[in-house]
Structures are given as C-alpha cells and as structure tokens.
Amino acid sequence: MDARTKWMLVLSFCFSFAVRAPAQDTVQADELLDSVQNWVQENVDNDVWDALGLDQSRVQQFMVELQRRFQGQDVYELGNLQQTATQLIPVLRKFEETQPYALWLQSHLDYLTTANELRRQARPGTNAPPPTAQLQRRVWVRELESRPLPPKAQSLMPRLKPVFRGESVPQELAWLAEVESSFNPLARSPAGAVGLFQLMPATARRFKLSTSPRDERLDPEKSARAAANYLRLLHTRFGDWRLALAAYNSGEQRVNNLLRSSKTRSFDAIASRLPAETQMYVPKFEAVLLRREGKTLINL
Known about the structure:
Mean pLDDT: 84
Low-confidence stretches: 16-29
Largest sheet: none
Distance between the termini: 54 Å
CATH topology of the largest domain: Lysozyme
Structural class: mainly alpha
Strand content: under 5%
CATH architecture of the largest domain: Orthogonal Bundle
Number of domains: 2
Number of strands: 0
Number of helices: 15
C-alpha cells in the first residue's frame, strides 16, 4: 500500500468521527480516541505522517474533538479548533479524493471563527452563560455583512428557486445551499452527506433520490427538490421555520423531544440544549437570508 492510499484510508477513518451523528450513535471521546489510535498504529506507517508534515496525534485528537464539540452544547468550545482546521484544509485539498472533505470543512470553518467572536462577547470568567439565540443572530449578521456571494451562487440560484416554489416552499430557503455547502455540489461530509443541501443517504432515498450507481444528490435540481420536500414536511410538523431548520440539521426526534420536555414551541427556548452546531446553524441561515434577500424567517 503506497503512502497516498494509506493517507486516503486514514482520512476516511478519522473523518467518520468528525461529524454530527444521531444521539444513539454518539460514542464517548475516550473510546473514539482509542479506536483512532489503534487503527492508525496498525495500518499507517510513521513515514506517511512525516511526508505530510503532520503530527499524527494532533490529527487524531482534532477528529475526536471536532465530533465531541459539534455534538456538545458548549458553543464557545468550538473556537479552540479554528487554527487546526485552518491548517488541515490545505492538506485535504492536495488530493482529488479528499477535496470534497476540504470543501465541507471550509464551509464549516466560520462556525469556529464565530464561536471565538461569541466568546469574546461573553462575560469574563469560566461560568459565562451560553450565548442566546438573539446574540448569535446579531453576531452572525455582522460576520456576514460583507461576505461576497459564493462563486457558484449566481448561476445556481436561478435554477434552485423555481424548484422550491414548485414544492410550495418559500423560494428564499434555497439559500440553505450557502450554509450547507457554499454552493459547491461536490462537498461531502465525512458522515456521507453529499451535494448542495448535504443530504444523507437515508434522507435522499426517503425522497426518491438514488445514491448509486449514479448519485442524484450531485444534481442541483434533484437535490433541491428533496431538500424542499423535507423542509416542507418539517415545517408542517413543527409549524415554525426555525424549528424546521433545527430539525433538518440535528434530527426531527431530538427537536421534538426537547419541545415536549420544555412544553414550548420556540426555537429560542430550546436552543441552548441543542447541539452546538445546530445552535449556530439556524442563526447563521437567518443571517444569510437577511444578507441575500433582506428578509427574515418570520416574514416568510
């Protein structure tokens, strides 16, 4: 096995831990680290890491920490991973096989930078309260106020909006592609989500998309139709676009359970108990919507 093949394998293995996962599949961080370490020691020579100029233990720990912190509830913790993620992205871009992962990580990098900004605004001390959804909305608006259009947005949005309209969903929700993939259909999450709207295989099949031999999630219109259908279903269930987006990101059952236990129908009321990624995902989309359309979710 040559060095390049071994690098592909270790990335695939490590990245399988570096994503959001259903709660029932969450594994303790110590178990994740032990699994990664054992696999790497058995399958990857030390000279591979030397050739890449990477520290093996640092990459392993990053993968475990990214998973733990996206799944955890502490938004501030995400900021500590910004520097390592920034260094890893160019490495992933070196090989064609890992470029889709680089695209995914790049589209998630601003969660880490925004987490640092939120931490700067928190009260000093170790017991700073979690950032409210209102504060996050304000910070995301500032973070995105000068952000240019992603390169492919101008050509893709005229194709995506009619699909959303055709599925009786507000066409402005097509901007979800900016949050999910920065409008790059080749983006692939380590968990296997693919395309503009980062559909998981099960979700794709649920909405009649084939994942093999040809992956229809790579088709902009087909993936948009599936995403629009899913969002319509979620809005019908929860009656609120913020809750629908939270469920799109973290799962229907998780959102439903929190609403039931809290006896509320408000995203803001349950936000701090959602995964850190989801806490930021919804306000980020709201900021994108305001930046690109001058609208809010409440107005849709």
